[in-house]
Design a protein that fits this description.
It contains 15 helices and 12 strands. The chain is α/β, with parallel strands linked by helices and about 450 residues long. The chain has 2 domains: about 170 residues, no CATH class; about 270 residues, Alkaline Phosphatase, subunit A (3-Layer(aba) Sandwich), CATH 3.40.720.10. It is elongated.
């Protein structure tokens, strides 16, 4: 029985290590936490309470393992966010549902195997062996060897403090600590020099490519009309956070400490960009192709000053796309242009959708050729660049449209694109940077 349990622990470590290697994620070869289960088996005689306690401990340790792997792909996900995000799994991409099924199946299988085949009645125990294993584990832990460590201890020392700080704070929105593309708009409001027509676009998953030629290729459709601009500028800055936090960074110069915006008090939404412009007589619009209930936007968009909020249900003529079963960004340029043309003073904010992970949404324009940049055609990096190129190409088609005259455009990524294979991420994208471009159409 001892050999079988030891084999299970080894196989668990091997499975998770191979999974991490396959995805390009970091994990020690041996997680010492699983030795705790082996120690209990050796040290204690059969006891129902001990059985329940340590099977629960095994599942908890496995859950921490999964969270640490997920956190490398989505570095902004915290414990409190996991349960909230799970409510969107079945309205999101199929890939999310697949990974959730795999994780749940793994935990259930682990429970069944452990419960049915181990911690059954046994009279023998070997406390000398248990103490020896415990001593070796302690020594390895304090040696801080990357290939052999306690994931539970790593989690507590590196992640728990941030979670506890968030939970103890009464303030859910804090002052923005990053750069933002919208800061010049806030400054112009103070100076009374705001453009009459402002289009602010938070572009889903627009990161910074390490290859400057990729960035040039993505923005080439815009630069071909450079004579039509009063100016054009571009750049990038570092940012870690979810889409909602990226939105609040630009709209309110604030960062969200939670993903569940329903926890944010109404008064924390004061002095946001739409509200300030509305006070100066601007018509304020928000556009998003997904459902209004996603991230509770139907509540907080009006709170920050949007007089008109347009969501999936408001664009019946637009085609349906895959991302969160929403509308295709490709078809939203037309109604957006109509709104901008119909108002003398207007601020329109657009959160794009179809460049959302896993980047497999409809392509109407396939103009980005991945092999030219040594990218595999089916890699996530290739797919997200194809989606981004389609967005910028479609935007460029409206540069010479009379409805877009005198519109000042600000485009910025909400966060770097989450890539399941971090081998792609670290070689193709610059850390967690987001890109931006601004221009004013003559």
């Amino acid at each position: 029985m001892k050999k079988k349990l030891l084999l299970l622990i080894l196989l668990t470590n091997i499975f998770l290590y191979i999974l991490s290697v396959r995805l390009g994620l970091e994990r020690p070869i041996i997680n010492l936490d699983y030795i705790l289960v082996y120690l209990v088996f050796l040290f204690f005689s059969y006891n129902k309470v001990i059985k329940v306690l340590f099977i629960s401990l095994l599942l908890a340790m496995s859950s921490i393992e999964i969270l640490l792997l997920v956190n490398q792909i989505f570095p902004f996900v915290k414990i409190g966010d996991v349960f909230y995000l799970s409510t969107f799994v079945f309205t999101g991409p199929v890939a999310y549902q697949k990974w959730l099924f795999i994780m749940v199946f793994y935990l259930i299988l682990l429970y069944i195997i452990t419960s049915e085949y181990f911690f059954v009645k046994h009279q023998h125990n070997n406390r000398k062996t248990a103490l020896a294993c415990f001593f070796i584990s302690i020594v390895l832990t304090f040696l801080n060897v990357d290939s052999v460590r306690s994931q539970g201890l790593f989690f507590v020392t590196n992640y728990s403090k941030d979670y506890h700080k968030t939970k103890s704070s009464s303030e859910r929105l804090i002052k923005n600590k990053y750069e933002s593309v919208s800061k010049p708009i806030f400054d112009s409001i103070k100076q009374g020099s705001s453009s009459k027509k402002i289009l602010l676009i938070v572009n889903e998953s627009w990161g910074k490519a390490t290859d400057i030629n990729i960035q040039k290729a993505l923005l080439a459709p815009l630069y071909q009309y450079s004579d039509n601009y009063e100016y054009i500028d571009e750049g990038s800055f570092a940012f870690i956070g979810a889409t909602v936090s990226g939105e609040l960074r630009e709209l309110c110069q604030k960062n969200a400490t939670v993903m569940d915006i329903s926890k944010v008090d109404d008064k924390e939404f004061a002095n946001c960009l739409p509200s300030l412009l509305r006070q100066q007589g601007y018509d304020t619009y928000s556009v998003h192709g997904a459902d209004s209930g996603l991230y509770n936007r139907s509540r907080w968009y009006p709170l920050i000053g949007f007089e008109h909020t347009l969501f999936k249900e408001d664009f019946r003529e637009a085609r349906d796309c895959e991302s969160f079963s929403g509308k295709c960004d490709y078809d939203l340029f037309e109604p957006i242009s109509d709104i901008l043309a119909s108002k003398e003073q207007v601020m329109l904010y657009w959160l794009t959708l179809n460049t959302h992970a896993p980047y497999d949404d409809n392509l109407f324009i396939d103009g980005f050729h991945c092999p030219d940049f040594s990218l595999k055609e089916e890699s996530e990096a290739c797919l997200v660049f194809k989606q981004q190129y389609q967005f910028f190409y479609r935007l460029s088609e409206y540069i010479q449209d009379d409805r877009m005259k005198n519109v000042e455009v600000y485009i910025v990524g909400d966060h770097a694109p989450p890539i399941v294979s971090l081998k792609d991420n670290f070689s193709v994208f610059k850390d967690f940077d987001v890109s931006w471009v601004t221009f004013k159409i003559k």
